Amino acid sequence: MQERIRALLVHDRPEPMGSLRRALESQSIETQSVRTCQEANQTLWGRQPPHLVLAAARLPDGSWEDLVLMAARAPVPVNVIVVSEVVDIAFYLEAIQVGAFDFIVPPMSFADFAYAYVVGSAVDNAVRRRDSHSLNAPRAKPVEGEEGTAPAASNSETLLKTAS
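-> structure tokens emitted (164 positions)
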């Protein structure tokens, strides 16, 4: 049986995440929304952690950077995609350097080739990394203030090509 792909949307405003949720669900990706970094961390350590975290640029109790660190410490590989409301190349480059898998901006639909490519690549990468990751090898829960490592791989060329 094929594993269900899950995406966690972390945001405190309905848009652009509503259109993102619809686009993901149209591709049979199961979605869950939370409003805070704390709720996201609980989900990452839950029974069915997501393959992807789609993080709003602004959050009420932290930042997308916090989510990148949380994902790096999660018990199974998870990729973070930062969702911005505007194209900002400097912000995009910062997100990639901090360890986000990629960066997207609205409008979001799977009719948009660049968007579909980013999400598809992130899913494929997470599944591949999970397959090679020993699920039986327990990882310690993160220690508050402990430095994490960034998730492997990025599609940093995607936005630069589409923004040109």
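The beta strands are 6-10, 30-34, 52-56, 58-59, 62-63, 79-83, 102-104.
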